[in-house]
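User: I'm new to structure prediction. If I give you an amino acid sequence, what do you actually give back? Let's try with this one:
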Amino acid sequence: MPTPKTPLALFVYNRPQYAQAALESLSRCRRIDECQLFIFCDGAKSPEQEQSVAATRQAVRPLAKKLGAEMIERPQNLGLAHSIVTGVGDLCRQYGRVIVVEDDHLHSPSFIDFMLQGLDRYQDEEKVAQISGYMFPVKHPQQPDAFFLPFTTVRGWATWQRVWELCNWNANDALQALQDADTRHRFDLEGTYPYTQMIIDRLEGKNNSWGILFYWFMFKANRLTLHPRRSLVWTGGLEGSGIHVRMEDHEQTPQRKVLNFTFEKPLVFPEKIEVDEAAYQRVKKFLRKRHEKPPLWKYYRRVILNKLVKIKRSFER
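Assistant: Good question. You get back a string of structure tokens that encode the predicted 3D arrangement of the chain. For your 317 residues, that looks like this:
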């Protein structure tokens, strides 16, 4: 019997150039032939978006056909959160695991290989909840190639049915639990990232993030995520075209460094399934520094870049 393929879910909406670029970068990944690609195309939220939604589907069809992908074209708009929760759930029930990317992700040629090795290695390890393809632009030692940290990612990741089936997407207990100062401090990565405010906003209907609910589940269950020492995912959409993020919200490894990076030698995984405290300290230091007030020249640079992006987008319409 042939080895079953691993489902790879790509979620697209109304950005044809992003979706096409994401699919092209996946096609260049090692071991793409070991995956069954599913492209989830959400329906238009309004009549004004119907044209861009149709253009996105048209843009990805040729390469999707070449890659043997199955396109799931929703007639209605589920929204990103509902689309991911239901799509990932369906694939996990059918295949037992899944790799997940979005339309504004570009990938290192080693991305799929890293995902598959992680999924295979930690398949039955209850403490491991997720395999991440993303890492903040933090310099880590050359070895090991990956380590465990106590938080999740939404930028290129993988998980198993054993994890997804246990998730509670209501998080009704979060507000009471986070009244405890120690719990809140740990949930916010020792005060370096505003996760508490994010989940409060989610429960009050101010955002529609599935990711913060997934992190809350993992946090309560004391689960870990395997992260690469260097990012294998670059995210577009940070310039304002994405729904939930803006350019000033994130810094990341430059695109060319992600797309040109590969693991040339056999991957070295951590010896123990526990938080790598040294790597965790480096990440927290980066996050803490990022939240400090930037010099004026950086502020004006961001303002100018945002304006240039908006001007460029106006000419592309």
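You can read the tokens as a compact description of the fold. Here is one thing that stands out. The beta strands are 6-12, 35-41, 70-73, 97-102, 105-107, 128-132, 146-149, 157-160, 224-228, 233-235.
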